[in-house]
Model the fold of this input.
Amino acid sequence: MKVYTPISVCYEDTDAGGVVYHSKYLGFAERARMNFLHEHGIYCKEMAQSEKPCGFMLNHCEINYKKPAYLEDELIVETELLELRGAGFDCLQIVKRGEEVLVEIKVCVCCVTSEGRPTRIPANIRSKLAEIS
Done:
């Protein structure tokens, strides 16, 4: 199931020519992943404050820039769960302007303890993610 997150391009997102700076897409994707988790009843703050504190951390990403976005563009980030593993999951995130694909981002997210060590996704979170895949 895809979750759609709207993004309005602001001055802070662009270079001097009004083109979205390449690293800003990672921020757009982060906001969209948080929205994706919230849409499925998963809250990182609750995970961090649980009996066994943990959270999600980006482990790897691949970005394919196809076309630029510009100042004041209205974008949509589509987020879709690709694979669920014991200690993490993969998502495909596509940044669009209307139906036009601008950027494709594949992210690998892992669950980590409060000390930053990989750990299995808690059962209650895992079950919510499993319902999606």
